[in-house]
Design goal:
Chain lengths: 349, 167
């Protein structure tokens, strides 16, 4: 049968890799919720959750159990199919990004070379963009299907915010692509790891700042968390949700944060590169594992940055948000792109 | 049947079924969501033709941006199934007949195009849809039409801003 004639070992290898990455992201997301509350506690000079287990380490499980045990409510006047589809879409879109992120170089098991990346496609960065732009549907469908005017308002806000900030994000990204000359995330990371190559942040400080601000907006994090502005919209687009459907929305936000941190680390901070160390001198498997640790360290740093900003800066007003997005960030990103192009042209002579 | 044929038939059936659902859905929001499924199926076809760049741009631009705006407008106007004007049977019949005529014209056009006769589709091996080749083609062979179309987009943008500024 020709239908089944392909490398089954490859399929198995990829399936295991996907399972590990998805479970690891969910696990990290679980503890990010805990870290968020601890960081909030530290920043507000209070201990944070410390009752469940040593240092409150079992708090995320207690929270998860609480969410699961709650009563599942689907409002009578809601659009039931879409009401369930909303959180599912949000979670799917959040997790799909992990497919193109290079977690490390490769490991060798029994003479078989296994890439620690699910798919090295030649449009990697655009794939991330495609998935991010689909994440909006989770919010929009959930907000609309709830049949509640506050949810709808929040969903519309969220969608317009996401569309606006995607533009500036894409424009700041183009400058990175001009430097690296490739859309594949693996090639971008390899370019930064190469002998004498510097991390892209050195060449693109302005581009990174724009990208980071847009990442905050895309993840609906403060100061851009208008879709959940509880003092004017009650609770935002997930007001009618309860139990694990609400949990999916909240969780998707944390998964999104992890994925955007990973993308930022790969684009601007050398991905799995360990600074001041030539990885080719190490044994292959050691280098790969150290690479994963390096990338995770960078991700944790960005996650901390996300939290630090959340507990420091108040929220924008809606018109200010649009003003910043369209009238400040987009011209800045265009300027950054022009300067990058000019410098590249000048260097090529 | 090899894998590609299975995928082709799956995507085609999905595309046609979703397209029909776009038309028959009573609720405009459902129509938009089915239209997004159509775009996904078409992007799948692009990937079968080894045009990954076109596939992902199709998703980003159509499914990711334009359809969000469609959904936006429909949700803002709060269109419901009962708010839509009732069309009578004759109108529907006329629509079906004129649409069918258009389909016939399209099919006969494709069947008779000289450049297409005797050609088979390049599955998995064509490379014009990759970003490098597409960029080269657009900026060398087709640079004038490409630039003219960008001016067209610019004028549309300026027009939208002018109309928006009036109020």
């Amino acid at each position: 049968m020709t239908l089944l004639a392909f490398d089954w070992a490859l399929l198995l290898e990829k399936l295991i890799l996907i399972a590990i990455i998805v479970l690891a992201s969910l696990g990290i997301a679980l503890y990010t919720t805990f870290a968020e509350r601890k960081v909030a506690g530290a920043l507000q000079d209070r201990p944070g959750p410390n009752r469940a287990g040593p240092f409150g380490l079992f708090q995320p499980f207690a929270d998860g159990l609480k969410l699961i045990m709650k009563e599942e409510i689907i409002p009578n006047t809601s659009n039931k199919g879409l009401f369930i589809l909303g959180p599912a879409l949000a979670m799917t879109a959040a997790l799909m990004t992990c497919a193109v992120i290079p977690w490390s170089s490769y490991i060798e098991i029994g003479g078989r070379k296994i890439d620690l990346q699910v798919a090295d496609i030649n449009i990697g960065v655009l794939y991330v963009f495609g998935v991010v732009s689909l994440g909006v549907y989770g919010i929009m469908i959930g907000g609309w299907a709830s049949n509640n005017k506050f949810s709808l308002m929040a969903a519309l806000r969220g969608a317009s915010q996401a569309i606006s900030y995607e533009l500036a994000m894409g424009l700041s990204l183009i400058a990175v692509l001009m430097i690296s000359g490739s859309l594949s995330l693996k090639t971008i990371v390899d370019g930064q790891m190469a002998e004498g190559g510097l991390w892209n942040i050195v060449y693109q400080p302005l581009g990174f700042i724009i990208f980071f601000i847009c990442a905050l907006a895309e993840c609906n994090r403060t100061p851009f968390d208008l879709p959940e502005a509880e003092n004017e919209l009650n609770m935002g687009y997930h007001q009618e949700y309860s139990s694990m459907k609400l949990g999916f929305y909240l969780f998707a936000e944390y998964v999104n944060m992890i994925m955007s941190s990973a993308v930022m680390a790969s684009l601007y901070f050398g991905g799995y590169d360990i600074p001041f160390l030539d990885e080719s001198t190490l044994p292959v498997n050691t280098a790969a594992i150290l690479g994963v640790v390096a990338l995770l360290a960078k991700i944790v740093f960005f996650l901390f940055l996300f939290m630090w900003i959340r507990w420091t800066i108040p929220r924008f007003r809606y018109d200010q948000l649009m003003h910043v997005g369209w009238k400040n960030l987009i011209p800045l990103a265009l300027f950054n792109m022009l300067v990058t192009g000019a410098v590249i042209l000048w260097q090529q002579g | 049947m090899n894998t590609i044929q299975v995928l082709f038939f799956f995507l085609s059936v999905l595309a046609i079924f979703s397209a029909i659902m776009v038309l028959v859905s009573k609720n405009p929001v459902h129509s938009v969501l089915w239209l997004i499924t159509v775009f996904f199926a078409i992007s799948g076809h692009y990937i079968l033709l080894n045009a990954q760049f076109l596939a992902i741009v199709n998703l980003i631009v159509y499914a990711g941006a334009i359809m969000v705006l469609f959904l936006f407008v429909i949700m803002l106007m709060n269109l419901n199934a009962d708010a839509a004007p009732r069309k009578n049977l004759w109108m529907k019949l006329a629509g079906v007949i004129s649409g069918g005529c258009f389909l016939m014209v399209l099919i006969s056009l494709i069947r008779q195009t000289v450049e297409l006769t005797g050609k088979t589709v390049m599955m998995k091996e064509g490379n014009i849809g990759l970003i490098k080749n597409l960029g080269k083609a657009l900026f060398t062979d087709f640079v004038i039409p490409f630039e003219i179309s960008s001016v067209l987009f610019l004028s549309a943008m300026v027009g939208a801003v002018v109309i928006g500024k009036k109020n």
